[in-house]
């Protein structure tokens, strides 16, 4: 299992149970119960999306929320909700060839 601290450009993380309790956290999201509640509310909204557009047998894989200088990535794995807050640069997102990979 990859340690959440080792994810490139992450500035904070949360790992939640299926009912929204914080299991582990760190960085800017350490013990952020407010964000945990927001994330769980957002996930519950995915159940209410128009079933004609998105069949009900398709659960969400990943939710990305993008701001000017950071983003949140939310995913479900092993019956846990993982939330990562990462630095975000629109310039790099639009021009991936500018990223220096070593």
Automatic annotation (TrEMBL):
Keyword field contains Hydrolase: no
Keywords, sorted A to Z: Lysosome
Entry GO CC: lysosome; Ragulator complex
GO BP terms in the entry: cellular response to amino acid stimulus; positive regulation of TOR signaling
Coiled coil: none
GO MF, one annotated term: guanyl-nucleotide exchange factor activity
Membrane-spanning residues: none
Record flagged with keyword Metal-binding: no
Highest taxon of the lineage: Eukaryota
Family: Belongs to the LAMTOR4 family.
Listed PANTHER family: RAGULATOR COMPLEX PROTEIN LAMTOR4 (PTHR33967:SF1)
The name this protein goes by in its record: Late endosomal/lysosomal adaptor and MAPK and MTOR activator 4
Organism field: Trichomalopsis sarcophagae
Lineage: Eukaryota, Metazoa, Ecdysozoa, Arthropoda, Hexapoda
